[in-house]
Amino acid sequence: MKFYEDRVWDLNIAYIGGGSKGWAWGLMSDLALEESLSGTVKLYDIDYEAACNNEIIGNRMSDIEGVKGKWNYKAVRTLEDALTGADFVVISILPGTFKEMASDVHEPEKFGIYQPVGDTVGPGGLMRALRTIPIYVEIAQAIKRFSPNAWVINYTNPMTLCTRTLYQVFPEIKAFGCCHEVFGTQQLLAEMLEDMLGIKDVSRDEIKINVLGINHFTWIDKATYKGMNLIPLYKDFVDKYYETGYEYGIKENWMNSYFTSAQRVKFDLFRRYEIIAAAGDRHLAEFCPPWYLKDPETVKEWKFTLTPVNWRIQNKAELEEKAQRLKNGSESFVISATGEEGVKQMKALLGLGDFVTNVNLPNQGQMPELPMNAVVETNACFTRDGIKPVLAGTLPKAVQNLVVRHVYNQETILEAAMSKNKEMAFRAFVNDPLTGNLSLKDAKILFDAMLNNIREYLKGWE
Amino acid sequence: MKFYEDRVWDLNIAYIGGGSKGWAWGLMSDLALEESLSGTVKLYDIDYEAACNNEIIGNRMSDIEGVKGKWNYKAVRTLEDALTGADFVVISILPGTFKEMASDVHEPEKFGIYQPVGDTVGPGGLMRALRTIPIYVEIAQAIKRFSPNAWVINYTNPMTLCTRTLYQVFPEIKAFGCCHEVFGTQQLLAEMLEDMLGIKDVSRDEIKINVLGINHFTWIDKATYKGMNLIPLYKDFVDKYYETGYEYGIKENWMNSYFTSAQRVKFDLFRRYEIIAAAGDRHLAEFCPPWYLKDPETVKEWKFTLTPVNWRIQNKAELEEKAQRLKNGSESFVISATGEEGVKQMKALLGLGDFVTNVNLPNQGQMPELPMNAVVETNACFTRDGIKPVLAGTLPKAVQNLVVRHVYNQETILEAAMSKNKEMAFRAFVNDPLTGNLSLKDAKILFDAMLNNIREYLKGWE
Amino acid sequence: MKFYEDRVWDLNIAYIGGGSKGWAWGLMSDLALEESLSGTVKLYDIDYEAACNNEIIGNRMSDIEGVKGKWNYKAVRTLEDALTGADFVVISILPGTFKEMASDVHEPEKFGIYQPVGDTVGPGGLMRALRTIPIYVEIAQAIKRFSPNAWVINYTNPMTLCTRTLYQVFPEIKAFGCCHEVFGTQQLLAEMLEDMLGIKDVSRDEIKINVLGINHFTWIDKATYKGMNLIPLYKDFVDKYYETGYEYGIKENWMNSYFTSAQRVKFDLFRRYEIIAAAGDRHLAEFCPPWYLKDPETVKEWKFTLTPVNWRIQNKAELEEKAQRLKNGSESFVISATGEEGVKQMKALLGLGDFVTNVNLPNQGQMPELPMNAVVETNACFTRDGIKPVLAGTLPKAVQNLVVRHVYNQETILEAAMSKNKEMAFRAFVNDPLTGNLSLKDAKILFDAMLNNIREYLKGWE
Amino acid sequence: MKFYEDRVWDLNIAYIGGGSKGWAWGLMSDLALEESLSGTVKLYDIDYEAACNNEIIGNRMSDIEGVKGKWNYKAVRTLEDALTGADFVVISILPGTFKEMASDVHEPEKFGIYQPVGDTVGPGGLMRALRTIPIYVEIAQAIKRFSPNAWVINYTNPMTLCTRTLYQVFPEIKAFGCCHEVFGTQQLLAEMLEDMLGIKDVSRDEIKINVLGINHFTWIDKATYKGMNLIPLYKDFVDKYYETGYEYGIKENWMNSYFTSAQRVKFDLFRRYEIIAAAGDRHLAEFCPPWYLKDPETVKEWKFTLTPVNWRIQNKAELEEKAQRLKNGSESFVISATGEEGVKQMKALLGLGDFVTNVNLPNQGQMPELPMNAVVETNACFTRDGIKPVLAGTLPKAVQNLVVRHVYNQETILEAAMSKNKEMAFRAFVNDPLTGNLSLKDAKILFDAMLNNIREYLKGWE
User: Fold this and answer.
1) More confident residue, B112 or C305
2) Which residues of B touch D6 (CB under 8 A)?
3) Binning pLDDT at 50, 70 and 90, where does residue D64 land?
4) Count of H helices and E strands in chain B?
5) CB pairs under 8 A between A and B
6) How many whole angstroms separate alpha carbon C20 and alpha carbon C43?
7) Distance (Å, rounded) from C-alpha B73 to C-alpha B60?
8) First to last CA, chain A
9) How far, in Å, CA of B157 to CA of B160, rounded?
10) Which residues of B touch D346 (CB under 8 A)?
11) CB-based contact B342:B27 (threshold 8 Å)
């Protein structure tokens, strides 16, 4: 890495999961739009061919008009190759295939448990965590060995447990987890300003917030725009749209913008707790008792959708066709900012501009009432080679109640996965709010079936 | 108070709830059996006549053969009279009447929520707390004013919130809460020694335990008898009786010995979490998701009973008749040790013998992972004019998960009761594991009905 | 207060100590240079006449060419007048007179104790604290009563104990303490870049630092400029100037720029502890055992000066003459930026631009190894109506050792002053590193003499 | 180990330092007086011959009349032999020889620094720690390997750092440190009862105390005898003997009873801080600034002595002659209780009787204001296979100030010794209160000389 007058050359980025379609292309886009950085991105993927495709697609980008950041993309065959010499490591992988994801999401439906996403908490999130943690153990060990000083950005879900595992295995790691769900809520508040007060063109970073909680179950207890406290306005906004929902939609290029809801869950949680829930409704619903997920009709009433894994399979097929077209040049890559902050964060860590944003980090006191070392999501100051969390304070007790049980469940899952302990994993399973209505017998049947479906990822379990 | 050669004269005890039948007579018994103490017990009760009856009953005791401790009992008309000059304050009251208790226990049954006791957590425990806390606010203020240096022993449920309120109002108070549920589990372990190993006549204080958790949801992570670790033996014991339950029964004079269960809930919790739950099954079941309380049939399978309030009404009538007989001398008082530790604790606090036992106290670090100041139940060293909690350590994470949500709920209830905030009380209501299956609409209907039933105790609520 | 398009009108500032020459004129200057704010500054001072002078001087400023911010200055006779309606409260007072300050600084010299400033720690700082705390108790009570929602900026020394007292008396106060000593160290690092690498015109805010410690004994464990880690460079810089000192001087308009030293104490502390001490040498020396203050010769060797109170008296006389000239117009006010951040902080708190800077606040975990609630100095995020400390981390243990003893001493002083407890004050006196060599007898003599000299400020002490 | 009816057979004790004269003979005595235990003591010593002597002496004891506990003593050649199969490990070694100890104690005298003991803090304690920690690293590693489940009792000084090192190297170790200094203070309080009130024959365990602090700088904030609070009486006792000192002497068989003082330092610390210092005056003086150690005259005034290492050398010679006589039978071993609690603690850990006493353990919250994991001395409950600290609370802030600086210094020393970092060791050296008056140059000269004198114990230091 070379630094000169607000520019950095010869930067090395290792991209683990470098064969991905969505996230890899997004990073390519954002890097192409940034003029102060250039260097090499090493693409590592267990699907080496997919990484090679992205190498071709990535290297073709420099020729596109308007590209400011020129990068060399290179598929590599091993983690060691990817990590050696890396300044940054980006991790964005799919743990397992859609076959396992189908089990995560749909198996519980047989017992009346519905999950719109199934990748964070609930029975699906648990199973996903159990098969992801061993992969992250390997990644953490490789980083410790080959690039201990690199900054590591995680995008994979379950965000909390992926980030947590990295620190558990290699406590000195410089890792953090990023998620755009909170940005979506900032965007909603910006739209609210137009809807309620006619203030147009507010960008989401003008909405200043205090963030606290855990990923996908994050909360905003303070939101301001210039001299204005937005909480009272949000109360009116909730009153206006509580019954109908607010469906105007998100304007920015969110990767899964088609996943939007009518915000009714968010509005309902505000009515209950007087604090803004800051994630998509599909995620929020999964953290609560089955208030919003009792059955498909209930889901409909709350105006969000259960994403079937079939859709993901079809979507992936389409992306793969698109990848072929991009590779052979029959379709040209359209560069557009993703709205993600990864590149901005890299710049800050390189010394090119401090800023404050929300990230997932082990708790060192930023949320004093949550257990130390659990991964929490709060604001943090990004500066050259450093991230310092901001003291976020405490949640209202009634919300703390909802959040803390997931924190302890996630800690239980980590322990179960690290010690390959099936009984401990089952404890986490029955402690989840979504499984509370299962009889013990049914709980055992479902747990065993789901665990069996992912057995090939559970090496060493008895 | 006068002290001379291991004896104390002129001790003053204020008994709040001094018209009670069960607890007051128990204390009289225990005092009568203790030779090193004597003095005056002032009986205060909102039912002054009942206190006067107990004055007569109590004063008659000195004449009974074998009585070692001679005490003067005196009914008083005001808290001020009772407290002024008191060395100890005993609080054992019934907040409200059985009419409210019937609402606590039976109203939720209309919505499929069953509670065997209904005085600690669940919808019933919440309502009982809301009407008890204002009474405890008054008591705490009176103690602050009239007997700030007295030691205060609370026996009233909800234990945690009663004790918590005393400290909230008067932080310098020297109060603690006592409950015999843990003793029952020690007794069970003593019986286990006979059942499994043929070791007879082990007394419960020979079973050494480490206690941690909150009242009625207390846990034992370590139990020994002489040189023996009892946990592996308990595992075998659970295996032996898991299906049938263990029904031999408790031998000691437990006040509610007829409330025994077959310990199946306790055994099931051990199977799940590998730690001994240390309270009666009827209490334990109320803290969990409706695993054991789904419906009356489920309760039957787990071999415990739902105590109907009718029974309590009838029982009370019988006790009142007995009180009359005791008062007019047509029945003689039978003195027998209750198994409670109140008198032993008083002796220790007077300097007549240190010992270690479990009590309810604000958390000052004895359970480092629970919030500071929340009332927890752990061992503590009793010594002259001092109680120092023992560092109990941490619960297994999966159990911590179950416990901590009640801690935060209880803190929410305290805040709601202190600020007379109906919305906050509702948050605690819907956050309870037993109400998780209610639709929001039903939750609101039930909450409003229950709150309405106790409205006369909620002065100042809008 | 009115807010419109990045401007705020009708702002109300209460200035306690509003008759001051240095600080009040500085604030006037900074307000005049800021175009987005306007309103009224109420000047309150126990020397009402001085406040009236400043009213005249302040109101005349609007006529000066180039003034962007127009303010109405108004002397008031009571704290109530000053505080009622205030959006901000600025406190900058001299507790007592130079007579007491002469005792603080010079009385200990009779026993071989030399203090270059004598306003923070050491015997002088203790005495100053004892007479200042009662004044701050009054101020805090007045703020609680008349302007509980105002933001309060303290500039008075002893900074830590003044800020600490405000929170002790009124825990909900929104107060923070500001000091420019850290800025001076940033400035030194900026100059170092020129001296060592020829990089010119670096402004101090381009030097990004992590700040931790207590006021006047603050430390920087991380300093960067763009992509550069400045610690290794500082090591070389220290090597270059360790013996000679670095005397180039500070360029900005620091109020007491003539108080500069040759940074030798700072360099020596770096050699000892490998961390940058971030305050003037005169302050730093007072926190250590008498390494740098053994006698006047030692002070000379370390190249800083003992400021005699005589100089302050003469300086004050000159300022008073200047005040007269400014008032009667024979001298015109020269507006120039002070380098202080007060106005920038006000803007941020009004919603006109978030930023991160170092301030003095009660410890809520930003320094997890220091006692909670003690006032510490770290970075914090300023945003609309909110200041959130950044988690600063921990000091190296050997430095923690030096710092923590002052923290406990300050807490002892607070307790002594609040309870008017002479014996407790004496304990703090003998626990100070500068008094360690006194025999107990001498310690008592000196303490009594100093206390006697400030007796009129110690109402209610026996 | 076999357990039957309150007796334990075949117990295995590993004695590291088993060639010692004082401590080994004391343990032999105490074991001989205890009827419920028997088994084997393996004696390991770097002086194998000394261990062999003790084997002979120990095995001869069973023949002495009145011996209740029969033990088999066996000298072994390796740590592995000693530890394998051990139920308990006792560590009582002399790190280095009297040559090094002479340097620790007398080298600083050249610079006016006087230390009565020189084994805990001060320059001597530091040097002793630096050469002891590597030995304890080895011992901890051996215990981890050969007897990870054994209970480990440490008697070696510096107590705090020896115990701390064991936990640092092997965090799961079941170790604690024992010291009789607090017992001496209990004994003093017992004598006070006779002196002041004529109450005779009070034994020290009847004096109930709350203990808090660090070894040799331990404090008692609460002391009672039966119904009596002893603090006011101690105040009178101090008044009576403050000037003259109290020289009646200790009655029990304290190993170093000839080391008594007139308690004047203890009395002076009570006058200063209103809390009882609970260690011998010779130790206490070393933790303070040179209030009591300014020069030999000052020491004399405070009525304690500086123990010259010459005396220790001569004493050792006498003990060696005695060892020869005991071995060859020309002198018979006189069994008498030492007053130490080691055997009582072993019994409790075996399940033969719970009790509460003071021990040195890592801080897990028993002293919430001291750093976690630092070794502190407080009461703890001993029970079968478990020690649970009692929450001791907090020291008065002015005493906390004195204590905490030593805690951080000891943590610094640990870090320096573990990382073989000379500069960090020097920081601890200059941070000690006894070296505060040295010029930096002198500090460096003394430090280098002392370090040089122990260089053969500092393998791997540059």
Assistant:
1) B112
2) 226
3) confident
4) 16, 14
5) 73
6) 10
7) 9
8) 46
9) 7
10) none
11) yes
Tens of pLDDT, residue by residue over B372-415, are: 999 999 999 999 999 999 999 999 999 999 999 999 999 999 99
Which amino acid, residue D95? Answer: P
Please say whether the dihedral angle defined by the alpha carbons of residues A121, A123, A125 and A126, taken in this order, is positive or negative. positive
Q: C376 and C213 in contact (C-beta within 8 Å)? A: yes
Of chain B, the end-to-end C-alpha distance in Å amounts to 46
Per DSSP, the residues of D183-227 read HHHHHHHHHHHHHHH------GGGEEEEEEEETTEEEEEEEEETT
Cβ–Cβ under 8 Å, residues C151 and C349: yes
What would you measure as the largest C-alpha separation in chain C, in angstroms?
A: 66
Residue with tokens 């109402």: C459
Q: Do C412 and D404 touch (CB under 8 A)?
A: no
Q: What is the pLDDT of residues C115-168, one digit of tens each?
A: 999 999 999 999 999 999 999 999 999 999 999 999 999 999 999 999 999 999
Among D193, D262, D261, residue whose Cα is nearest residue D225: D193
- Please state, in angstroms and rounded to a whole number, the distance separating the CA atoms of residues D235 and D275: 9
Closest-CA distance of chain B to residue A103, Å: 24
Q: What is the largest CA-CA distance in chain B?
A: 66
Residues of D with CB under 8 A from a CB of C: 268, 272-273, 289-291, 294, 369, 371, 397-398, 400-402, 404-405, 408-409, 411-412, 415, 424, 427-428, 430-431, 433, 436-437, 439-440
List, for residues D175-213, the tens digit of each pLDDT value.
999 999 999 999 999 999 999 999 999 999 999 999 999
Q: Are C333 and C60 in contact (CB under 8 A)?
A: yes
Alpha helices in D198-301 (DSSP H): 230-241, 264-273, 281-287, 296-301
Is residue B146 predicted with pLDDT exceeding 60? yes
CA distances (Å), origin B118, targets B377, C34, D156: 20, 64, 56
Binned at pLDDT 50, 70 and 90, residue D164 comes out as very high
List the domains of chain D with CATH numbers. Answer: 2-96+110-178 (3.90.1820.10), 181-309 (no CATH)
- What are the chain C neighbours of D371 within 8 Å (beta carbons)? 369
Is pLDDT of C342 > 80? yes
pTM over 0.80: yes
- The tens digit of pLDDT for each residue in A201-253 reads 999 999 999 999 999 999 999 999 999 999 999 999 999 999 999 987 544 44
Of D404, D427, D433, the CB nearest to C398: D427
CA–CA gap between residue A389 and residue A176 (Å, rounded): 11
Comparing A62 with C316, the larger pLDDT belongs to: C316
- The predicted-structure confidence for C28-42, as pLDDT tens digits, reads as follows 999 999 999 999 999
Q: Write out pLDDT tens, residues B240-289.
A: 999 999 987 544 443 444 567 899 999 999 999 999 999 999 999 999 99
Per-residue model confidence (pLDDT) at position C249: 54
ipTM over 0.90: yes
A390 secondary structure, DSSP code: B
Subunits with 3+ Cβ pairs within 8 Å of C are: A, D
Touch between chain B and chain A (3+ CB pairs, < 8 Å)?
yes
d(CA C132, CA C137): 9
Report how far apart, in Å, the C-alpha atoms of D203 and of each of B8, C255, D190, D259 are: 22, 67, 7, 21
Please list, in sequence order, all residues whose beta carbon lies within 8 angstroms of the beta carbon of residue A267, skipping any fewer than 6 positions away: A238, A241, A242, A245, A246
Q: For residue C419, give both structure tokens.
A: 């309870």
CB atoms B227 and D368 under 8 Å: no
Half-sphere exposure of residue C392: CA atoms within 13 angstroms, side-chain side? 36
